[in-house]
């Protein structure tokens, strides 16, 4: 078997050259991305398998409703084929409830519903700890243009509608999540697509069932989804029968 050429390796995934022009193979590792709570998290056995299935589930659902993504198909337990895209150096964060950095920055108690979904941008640079940036920074430094920004907001809000509905259907509240987007060319036209992954690594998830069962819990009391990878996969019906493990969710800032 020919040795594949590695294109990129990140905290939780490896990208290899794909078998067809304009494609890549995305391999999901068991490693977790570092967080403020766990700057050097240990690998979680089976996490890559579950995230491969979960990202397939969400990306396929988005493709089905007309939201363009880089996902083509799952190849095996840990790999999927994706479209090659020019990834924007930005993380797009959608917030539905106050939590994490937003609560700390504005003094809003965790769990409070926001008046409407809020879209934020963060410049992807680990050396700078991915700082929050405004649209003016993005346009001024050429990371994206105004049309890109309009398209990014539209895509992010459509993903939010879909994800919030799916999660609510299995008793999970989507407090916030992050997306990465990329550019692809179709003939002479460029368009933005949802890229990277959609998994518990990039979502803050609260368990509505536990919230209801917990005595004295109010509507704004967040309860993290326990055993997040396997529990979410089980509720969505995509849990591989030979993977069982427990871990806590990885939260975005």
Describe, in plain words, how this protein is organized in 3D.
- The chain is an alpha+beta fold and about 250 residues long.
- The protein folds into two domains: about 5-85, Phosphorylase Kinase, domain 1, CATH 3.30.200.20; about 85-230, D-amino Acid Aminotransferase, Chain A, domain 1 (2-Layer Sandwich).
- It is about 30% helix and about 30% strand.
- The protein has helices at about 45-65, 100-105, 135-140, 145-170, 210-215, 230-235; strands at about 5-10, 15, 25-30, 70-75, 80-85, 85, 90-95, 115-125, 130-135, 170-185, 190-195, 205.
- Strands 6, 7, 8, 9, 10, 11 and 12 form a seven-stranded antiparallel sheet that branches.
- It is globular and about 50 Å long.
- The termini are far apart.
- The relative contact order is 0.17.
- Residues about 245-253 have low confidence and may be disordered.
Global shape: globular
Alpha carbon gyration radius = 18 Å
User: What is the third-level CATH name, the topology of the largest domain?
Assistant: D-amino Acid Aminotransferase, Chain A, domain 1
Distance between the termini: 42 Å
Low-pLDDT residue spans? 244-253
Could you state the CATH homologous superfamily of the largest domain?
A: ATP-grasp fold, B domain
Helix/strand order: EEEHEEEEHEEHHEEEHH
* CATH C-level category of the largest domain: Alpha Beta
Instruction: Average the pLDDT over all residues and give the rounded result.
Output: 89
């Amino acid at each position: 078997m020919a040795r594949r050429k590695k294109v990129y390796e990140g905290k939780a995934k490896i990208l290899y050259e794909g078998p067809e022009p304009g494609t890549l193979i995305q391999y999901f590792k068991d490693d977790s991305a570092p967080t403020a709570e766990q700057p050097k998290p240990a690998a979680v056995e089976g996490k890559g398998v579950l995230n491969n299935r979960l990202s397939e589930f969400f990306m396929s659902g988005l493709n089905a409703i007309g939201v363009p993504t880089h996902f083509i198909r799952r190849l095996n337990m840990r790999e999927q084929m994706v479209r090659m895209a020019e990834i924007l150096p930005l993380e797009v964060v959608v917030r539905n409830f106050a939590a994490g950095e937003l609560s700390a920055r504005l003094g809003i108690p965790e769990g409070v519903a926001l008046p409407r979904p809020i879209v934020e941008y963060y410049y992807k640079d680990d050396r700078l700890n991915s700082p929050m940036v405004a649209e003016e920074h993005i346009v001024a430094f050429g990371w994206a243009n105004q049309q890109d920004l309009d398209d990014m907001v539209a895509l992010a809000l459509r993903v939010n509608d879909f994800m919030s509905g799916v999660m609510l259907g299995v008793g999970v509240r989507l407090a916030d999540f992050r997306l990465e987007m990329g550019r692809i060319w179709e003939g002479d036209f460029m368009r933005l697509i949802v890229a990277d992954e959609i998994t518990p690594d990039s979502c803050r998830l609260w368990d509505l069932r536990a919230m209801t069962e917990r005595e004295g819990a109010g509507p704004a009391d967040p309860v993290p989804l326990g055993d997040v990878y396997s529990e979410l996969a089980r509720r969505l019906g995509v849990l591989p029968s030979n993977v069982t493990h427990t871990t806590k969710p990885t939260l975005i800032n």
